[in-house]
Write a structure and sequence with these properties.
Radius of gyration: 15 Å
Structural class: alpha/beta
Shape: globular
Number of helices: 5
Order of helices and strands: EHEHEHEHEH
Largest sheet: 5 strands, parallel
Strand order of the largest sheet: 2-1-3-4-5
Helix content: 40-55%
Number of strands: 5
Strand content: 15-25%
C-alpha cells in the first residue's frame, strides 16, 4: 500500500477542492491510482475505527473499500457513497443496496477512478448551481 497524504480536514470547510474520499487499506489501490486522485482530498485509513474518526472531523463524499459489512454500516449511517472494489460482485452488497445503501461495485482501480470522476463531475455541477443561486439572491 502506498502512503497517501493524510489531510488536515477542517470541519465545515468549503475551501477544500474536490470530493473528500477515504480509502481503506483493504481496497488495495496501486500508486498510479492514487496519483490519478490528485484533485480529490484523499485520506488513507486502516480500518473502520479510523474511518469513523475521520468522518467525525469532516464530512466524506465517498469511501473506497473492499467489501466489509462494518464499512457498509458506517457509510449508511453517514449517508456517504461506498465504492466497493472487488473482483466479483459481493452478494451481501446487492442486499445492502436493496435496503437503500448508496454503493457502487467496481472490479478494479480503474473502475474506482471512473466512479470518483462521476462524483467529481456531480459535485462540480452542484457547486456551480449553488453559486448561481447565491449570486441571484444577492
Amino acid at each position: 500500500m502506498v502512503a497517501v497524504h493524510a489531510l488536515d480536514f477542517t470541519i465545515g470547510s468549503s475551501e477544500l477542492p474536490g470530493p473528500r474520499v477515504a480509502v481503506l487499506d483493504g481496497a488495495q489501490l496501486d500508486p498510479s491510482t492514487f496519483a490519478a486522485l490528485a484533485d480529490c482530498n484523499v485520506c488513507s485509513v486502516a480500518d473502520v475505527s479510523a474511518l469513523t474518526q475521520l468522518a467525525d472531523v469532516a464530512p466524506l463524499d465517498a469511501v473506497v473499500s473492499d467489501w466489509q459489512p462494518a464499512v457498509a454500516d458506517v457509510t449508511a449511517r453517514l449517508g456517504t457513497r461506498l465504492i466497493v472494489v472487488a473482483p466479483e460482485l459481493p452478494e451481501p452488497l446487492v442486499d445492502a443496496v436493496g435496503r437503500g445503501l448508496d454503493a457502487r461495485w467496481v472490479e478494479n482501480a480503474a473502475g474506482a477512478l471512473a466512479e470518483l470522476a462521476r462524483l467529481r463531475s456531480t459535485r462540480a455541477r452542484s457547486e456551480e448551481h449553488t453559486s448561481e443561486l447565491q449570486s441571484h439572491h444577492d
